[in-house]
Amino acid sequence: MSRMNQPAARLAALLLVATALMPASTIWAQSTQPNDTAYTRLIKEYLQDPRISTELVDHLPASATVPTPLKFNGRIVGAPGELTYAHQIHAYMRTIADASPRAKVWSIGKSMEGRDMIVMAIADEQTIQNLDTYKGMLHELTDPRVTSGARAQEIIEKLGKPIYWVTSGMHSPETGGPEMLQELAYRLVVEETPFIQDIRKNLIVFITPVIEVDGREKEVDTYYFNKGRPEGESRLPLVYWGKYVAHDDNRDGMGQFLNLTKNVTKTWLEWTPTIMHDLHEAQSYLYASTGTGPYNESFDPITIDEWWVMAENEVIEMTKRGVPGVWTYGFYDGWTPNYMFTIAHAHNGIGRFYEVASYGPDNRTMRVGATTTSREWFRPNPPLPTIEWGPRNNTNIQESALLFSLKYTADRKSWFLENYWLKNKRQVQMGKDGPVNAWVIPADQRRKADAVDAVNELLRQGLEVNRANGDFTAGGIQVHKGDFIARADQPFRILADIYFGLQQFSLANPRPYDDTGWTFQLMRNIDLKEIKDTTVLRQAMTPVTYPAKAPGGITGNGAVIVVDNTTDNNLMAFRMRNAKMRMLAAEKDFEMAGHQFRAGAFIIPQGNRSAIQAGLADLGLSAWAGSMPDVPTHDLDVPRIGYIHSWQRTQDEGWVRAAMDSYGVPYTYFGDNMVAKQGDLRKKYDVILLPQMGGSAQSQVNGMAMTGKLPLPYKKTDQFPNLGANDQSDDIRGGMGFDGLVALAKFVQDGGTLIVEGSTSNIFPSYGLTPGVSVDDAPNLIAPGSIHRGVFVDKASPLAYGYDGDELPVYYKGDVVLTAGGGLGRAFRGFGGGGNSPWQNTTPMATKPRLSPWEPDSAQAAGRGGRGGGQAEEMAQFRQMARRFGVSFDEGSPRVVLKFPDNPQQILLSGTLDGADAITGKAQLVDAPVGNGHVVMFAIRPYWRWQTQGTFFLGFNAILNWNDLDVGKAHPAATEPEGGRGR
Ligand SMILES: [Zn+2]
Questions:
Q1: Neighbours of 848 (CB within 10 A)
Q2: CA separation for the pair 95, 78 (Å, rounded)
Q3: Distance 166 CA to ligand 1 centre (A)
Q4: Other residues' Cβ atoms within 10 Å of the Cβ of residue 836
Q5: Tens digit of pLDDT for each residue in 782-835?
Q6: Ligand 1 center to 171 CA (angstroms)
Q7: Which of 321, 348, 691, 976 could form a disulfide with 423 if both were Cys (CB 3.0 to 4.6 A apart)?
Q8: 281 CA → ligand 1 middle, Å
Q9: Cα of 956 to ligand 1 centre, how many Å?
Q10: How far is CA 769 from CA 764, 845, 883, 934, in A?
């Protein structure tokens, strides 16, 4: 939907709201039920502004059987200065369910750190007793291939009930949703007003109060830890949320690495809820999601209309009651399908969210700017410039709006069920009508293990996948027996449509909220074909049961076993599981046992064949046996790996850690403040990973400021048992500093390999430590997370081992623009030239004026901003110190392995890109030799959000070949042919 159409859409939505039966607001409160007077009195006492209230939440009914939150927790929801742990919230939910036949609680799985995730179902007693019957009816509505129109009509009009699934606690510092949901659960179970009775009768409410349970426990510990700190001392940030990522836990909807996403998907597929509603806190005072558009083009238009009527209902009901600041439209776009609630959209449900002004939990005066208080068509009753705010305001506003939404859905249950049925029907029909009738993933493709991994991911997310029973051709595509086929005539076709399409995000749109391109098969570098021919639907095929397995094992006889390097990520697991086994890497293409191998193939001179056979079969990898091939090789020495994380921002490295952990790569993990304190890094490590931290070179080196007098520990204690996750430190302040940077430079010069990506690729060039590599300023570049073309420049480099062809789709989001010498020792043009200070090249991109339709992201700009002055002096100081420790700044000869195309028109593959000139021909992957070692620098993000499996192996190659990266390097003075190095 374009922006021009929004007012029209709103009008249509309002008409829909107006035509529905709308009793006067006052009748909602009618009940003879006594209130819990203590609780009700405290609601009034804690509320900071009487306007932030409705008749739905200004009281709490009493119950003789079900304990209130006050009775259970010792305080009401919205009590200032207190937060509740997830395990306590769960205990309360279970207590309600034990006390009432109107509720039921069960576990939906464990978090990454092993904590329980739950769902609570609330409805009337009869419904709770027959939950499986209602589940079955929703499944019937899901599948029009087996359900008749007459049966669907019966379910829609008489028998069925929608499931409205409320979730919260995804973003751990957004603390109010989990608190409020305790009171909502109590109210829904206990209250006897017609309003609440209608909800119980017509709807099944699911509540998951805390999605990120690991992060919640850390957040509550962190809050109380800081509460105990003296005034003026530094405050502990929420260092880790979940085990791996922070805010990106809500960007896992497609990649689905995290247990929380997997558990929600599993629960979704089991229950096929109608609506998922996720509660967040990032706007004033309550934003109900619709978004500015452009909306994701795969979403059913019905869904988008449902967003509008539901949001407008909340806006009008709250506005009618004089509650200011409830609005829709002007936040977030609706384009990227990587939020958790996309699980709803990808299965024909409705995904929506609130952004509420923060719970706190401390009372405060809240002031908001003119862009928030302006009266707009989408915000007719805007927030006030100043208001007294507190946790009870937060509770009141979101509990009220949510209750209006539940009532709205309950009153229109048949309408929502009909829409759901229609969406499923339309998806099946679209698959028949085409143009795309099926997608095929060839089973015998080069990266067959990763192709099967992709199939398994699709299966796990609910897409039906079949295997061809025999060879056939359809739409000009040759399909072989055993190839994977996702038919388009299935209800969850929409998931395939969302994932497999190419994205074209116009620059005429508002600034994108997140990634603009995500095409599944490009990110995973697998072969996937569309079939536009209905005859494919009549071919014989057999459903695949999860998990599918790629064939693997050894062909032929001989003492030497060669595993083809296909860049299947399981190869990394194979090497690490057999770390003690001697393996060599072939340095050139060769033939053995009738099979053509690529450079990088793993040669096992001798080993236990049956053990290797079993390992390869398990991982879906293929090997051939023969006699020692005549090809130059080097040992694949398994390195000792050090892994540096920032204490300021752990999220980005979390995605790299996810890949390392998943493929069994061991490492020693330590904070930036420990880099210098480790002593001689080279004595301990062969490879050091320093993943993206965000910010400028300077801010990444400086780390967390040395604020206050007291140290700032991140440690597990009896009082705060949830702190100290992943890593601990007596004082997390101080960063790596100059001495840490010198230690890293020494590590490389002494023969270590340092691997950096995104923002950390900025550090060495900016400090003049990788001569020949410079960081370019790119004020006009707009590259907000898209898929671009990578062109291999130097396939003789071990970093390129196993990759097929001359190109590779890569994910890039403008973190850094690298220029390198081109691999032939071209004169170094970075640090030290007259007037060409490296700092000129490190000014954060986002703080420069942009000739673009989009404003810079203010949060990003703040994060990237370095200090204004003193940079030249600081550099001089650093060089002086580094020289004292023997760090050399000699000329280098960086080797570009992968780069952007030389033609700007050929760069973008999926998403959007503007100012392409800034990256045309620039380096994506550089191997910068420094002394006896290497800095492997990625401008791209090879481990992005568990979606870029196709580029994982670039990093794995760096680890596997860490001490042989010079192989295949063309020396400018050399006359011998490239790769002539023997062993
Ligand atoms: Zn949030």
A1: 15
A2: 20
A3: 14
A4: 13
A5: 999 999 999 999 999 999 999 999 999 999 999 999 999 743 333 323 322 222
A6: 5
A7: 348
A8: 6
A9: 33
A10: 5, 21, 11, 11
Centre of ligand 1 to C-alpha 859, Å, is 14
- Cβ–Cβ < 8 Å for 863, 845: no
Distance 334 CA to ligand 1 centre (A): 15
**Cβ(760)–Cβ(744) under 8 Å?**
no
**N- to C-terminal Cα distance for the chain?**
62
pLDDT of 21 above 60:
no
> Whole-model pTM?
0.92
CB 169 within 8 A of CB 210: yes
* CA–centroid distance, residue 627 to ligand 1 (Å): 58
Phi, psi of 835 (to 5 degrees): 75, 0
Nearest to 198 by CA among 417, 353, 421, 412: 412
Distance of CA 170 from the midpoint of ligand 1 (Å): 7
Q: How far is the CA of 732 from the centre of ligand 1 (A)?
A: 26
Structure-block tokens of residue 768: 């003049």
Q: Distance between CA atoms of 105 and 84, rounded to whole angstroms?
A: 19
Q: Distance from the CA of 247 to the center of ligand 1, in angstroms?
A: 7
Residue with tokens 């709490």: 60
| The token pair that represents 253 in the structure block | 């909807």
Query: From CA 850, how far away is CA 780, in angstroms rounded?
Result: 6
Q: What is the distance in A from the centroid of ligand 1 to the CA of 280?
A: 4
pLDDT in tens, 943-972: 999 999 999 999 999 999 999 999 999 865
766 and 839 Cβ atoms separated by less than 8 Å:
yes
344: Cβ–Cβ under 8 A, 6 or more apart, which residues? 268, 273, 275, 276, 350, 351
**Tokens describing residue 684:** 């301990």
CA angle, corner 646, sides to 641 and 652, nearest 5? 85
Q: How far is the CA of 501 from the centre of ligand 1 (A)?
A: 27
Give distance in angstroms: CA of 175 to centre of ligand 1.
10
Task: Establish how many alpha carbons lie within 13 A of residue 957's alpha carbon, considering only the half-sphere containing its beta carbon.
Answer: 34
Work out whether the CA dihedral 48, 51, 57, 60 comes out positive or negative.
positive
**Whether 173 contacts 392, CB under 8 Å:** no
User: How far apart are alpha carbons 295 and 316 in whole angstroms?
Assistant: 23
Is-cis flag, bond preceding 285, omega within 30? Answer: yes
Beta bridge partners of 807: 791
Sequence-distant (6+) residues with CB within 8 A of 127 are 134, 161, 200, 201, 204
* DSSP, res 790: E
SS3 751: coil
CA distances from 842 to 143, 818, 839, 865 (A): 55, 11, 5, 10
Ligand 1 centroid from CA 234, angstroms = 24
pLDDT tens for 510-554 read 889 999 999 999 999 999 999 999 999 999 999 999 999 999 999
| Cα 248 from Cα 6, distance rounded (Å) | 29
Distance separating alpha carbons of residues 817 and 794, to the nearest angstrom:
19
Residue ranges of alpha helices (H) inside 436-550 are: 448-460, 493-500, 520-523
Distance 174 CA to ligand 1 centre (A): 6
Q: Which residues contact 623 (CB under 8 A, 6 or more apart)?
A: 553, 554, 555, 561, 562, 563, 564, 604, 612, 616
What number is the average pLDDT over the span 94-115? 98
How many whole angstroms from 246 Cα to the centroid of ligand 1? 10
Classified as helix, coil or strand, 670 is strand
Q: Cα of 180 to ligand 1 centre, how many Å?
A: 15
321 burial via Cβ count (<10 Å: 0-12, 13-18, 19+): middle
Residue 603 CA, ligand 1 centroid: distance in Å: 49
Contact of 639 with 956, CB cutoff 8 Å: no
For ligand 1, the distance from its centroid to the CA atom of residue 345, given in whole angstroms, is 19
